[in-house]
Amino acid sequence: MGKPLRKSARSGTLANASAAHIDDAPLSKESARPPARHALRRIPDAPADPASACASKPAAGDRQPVHAPPSAREVRTIYWALMVVIGLGTLDQSIVATALPRIMSDLGDIAKSSWIVTAYVLSSTTSMPLYGKLSDQFGRKRMILIAVAVFLVGSLLCGLSRSLTELIAARVVQGLGAGAFLPLSQAIIADLIPPAQRGHKQGGIAAVFAATSVMGPLLGGVITDALSWHWIFLLNLPVGGAALYNIVRKLRPGRPGGAQRIDYLGSLLMTAAVTAFLLVLSLGGSAWPWHSPQVYGSAGAGLVLTAALLAHLRRTAAPILPPTLFDNTVFNIACIVMSLTFMGLFGATLFLPLFSQLVSGTGATESGLLMVPLMLGAVISSVMGGRILARIGRYKPTQVAGLSTAIVAFALLAWSISARLSYWFIEPCVFMLGIGLGLVMPNMTVAVQNALPVAQRGVGTAMLTFFRSLGGLVGIAGSSAIIASQLPATEAAARTALAGHHLSGSLHQAAGGLADIYRSSIAETFAVGSAIVALALVVLLRLPELALVDRDDAPPDAQGVPAHD
């Protein structure tokens, strides 16, 4: 059996993270890298049982060919292809907002219009953990290619839809593909790039996520006016096709993580439980009254299914969610912090455009521009936070600073809205909020990937993304309940518009007397957001500060390495 790769602390050589998992590969000069500015802690991966090590080592004829270390150009090509698919997946969650009136005009059945968004959110969120586990088991490249292909097929079906039922079904297909984009892209970046340099790349991913979240409604309006609503989906095909081509060409699969049996029952239970809870969060207070049988039934079903899932995970040899995942302190704290952070973020900022339209009477496009400072702040700080991580080798200080900044920004927004201050004061506060949040998102991903074994990198990253999305949905539901509870019962039209997160010009005129109610209730959501993020900061302070780990000799799992031309 070949000796595992070693590094000399004196020489400072660092084998490339994406290629060094090949057994018996000599440490070439090309694969060496200068040391980071800080010390990297190695985790030995030698199994306790030598016999098991021999059994797990593939025969000579079964070994994968040794690939040369990835060049900077190859990593850059893969990185930008992944950024494109992340952007497409995020855009398609919000791009339909400004196209809904035109879609309803063509397809009718306005009562089901919310399902155009809900179907996508449900299918993408429920599929995230499944993709993470399957990528650990069968390889990142295989799963990301399947996901992009499914997304493009769904986009084509959306563009060709001739009825609302067809469009909703196609949006489910789209979401099933998009659920893999963010978690698998982050896992692939972690496979290719050492921890010391990873923060910068993860910061770029967070920047794209923030930018496309804000740009979605604006692009949707432009494309719908210039072409038609069909093209907000059809334009995914050439853009996504180009990304798919580069992934196929440049990303070569590593060895799978083992011929484990797929946990079909666990996958089914987890999907059903998540769907039940998401239905409550997505439809409760709008399509379903909070005290309706549908809400109670879905919530009860979710609890029963969750209990069944937990019992199944304890009995199964290779469960869809490894129980040891939740024994990791860094992972547990990270999931709680991200859930609380996005609960406060989505719960408050979602209604800023609504506040602008109701109180100031602005149009949809102008109100959407109110979110641009949030995007700019998040983009700047995401990249900046990654560079700081690469320099100091610590992921916790930037996150503490980020949440502290966000708390102050939330409080200032609550005060400025209730005090009737101008947008010249509100927009810098929104920018400040973006700065704070951008310092948290990418470095928390690095912290989780650094704390978990490589074999759990995919499922761990996916679960972090899942809890982040779940927190956002809880925040939206909570803020909707706060605002709706303060509306007079006679204002049914205002409640309907609030549930659909849009407001027509006629409603603005009819509900002019409700401006003060909206002002105070939206200010209250920002105050609640400040308290929620403060709680996240308290939890974050318990996050262990682990030295960044170089796992270049970790057992082969599902990593990808760039291919050569």
UniProtKB/TrEMBL annotation:
<dbReference type="InterPro" id="IPR011701">
    <property type="entry name" value="MFS"/>
</dbReference>
<feature type="transmembrane region" description="Helical">
    <location>
        <begin position="462"/>
        <end position="484"/>
    </location>
</feature>
<feature type="transmembrane region" description="Helical">
    <location>
        <begin position="367"/>
        <end position="388"/>
    </location>
</feature>
<feature type="transmembrane region" description="Helical">
    <location>
        <begin position="522"/>
        <end position="541"/>
    </location>
</feature>
<feature type="transmembrane region" description="Helical">
    <location>
        <begin position="113"/>
        <end position="131"/>
    </location>
</feature>
<feature type="region of interest" description="Disordered">
    <location>
        <begin position="1"/>
        <end position="69"/>
    </location>
</feature>
<feature type="transmembrane region" description="Helical">
    <location>
        <begin position="333"/>
        <end position="355"/>
    </location>
</feature>
<dbReference type="Pfam" id="PF07690">
    <property type="entry name" value="MFS_1"/>
</dbReference>
<feature type="transmembrane region" description="Helical">
    <location>
        <begin position="205"/>
        <end position="223"/>
    </location>
</feature>
<keyword id="KW-0812">Transmembrane</keyword>
<feature type="transmembrane region" description="Helical">
    <location>
        <begin position="78"/>
        <end position="101"/>
    </location>
</feature>
<feature type="compositionally biased region" description="Low complexity">
    <location>
        <begin position="45"/>
        <end position="59"/>
    </location>
</feature>
<feature type="domain" description="Major facilitator superfamily (MFS) profile">
    <location>
        <begin position="78"/>
        <end position="548"/>
    </location>
</feature>
<feature type="transmembrane region" description="Helical">
    <location>
        <begin position="400"/>
        <end position="417"/>
    </location>
</feature>
<feature type="transmembrane region" description="Helical">
    <location>
        <begin position="229"/>
        <end position="248"/>
    </location>
</feature>
<dbReference type="InterPro" id="IPR020846">
    <property type="entry name" value="MFS_dom"/>
</dbReference>
<protein>
    <submittedName>
        <fullName>Drug resistance transporter, EmrB/QacA family</fullName>
    </submittedName>
</protein>
<keyword id="KW-0813">Transport</keyword>
<feature type="transmembrane region" description="Helical">
    <location>
        <begin position="268"/>
        <end position="288"/>
    </location>
</feature>
<dbReference type="InterPro" id="IPR004638">
    <property type="entry name" value="EmrB-like"/>
</dbReference>
<feature type="transmembrane region" description="Helical">
    <location>
        <begin position="168"/>
        <end position="193"/>
    </location>
</feature>
<feature type="transmembrane region" description="Helical">
    <location>
        <begin position="423"/>
        <end position="441"/>
    </location>
</feature>
<keyword id="KW-1003">Cell membrane</keyword>
<dbReference type="GO" id="GO:0005886">
    <property type="term" value="C:plasma membrane"/>
</dbReference>
<keyword id="KW-0472">Membrane</keyword>
<dbReference type="GO" id="GO:0022857">
    <property type="term" value="F:transmembrane transporter activity"/>
</dbReference>
<keyword id="KW-1133">Transmembrane helix</keyword>
<feature type="transmembrane region" description="Helical">
    <location>
        <begin position="294"/>
        <end position="313"/>
    </location>
</feature>
<feature type="compositionally biased region" description="Basic and acidic residues">
    <location>
        <begin position="21"/>
        <end position="32"/>
    </location>
</feature>
<feature type="transmembrane region" description="Helical">
    <location>
        <begin position="143"/>
        <end position="162"/>
    </location>
</feature>
<dbReference type="InterPro" id="IPR036259">
    <property type="entry name" value="MFS_trans_sf"/>
</dbReference>
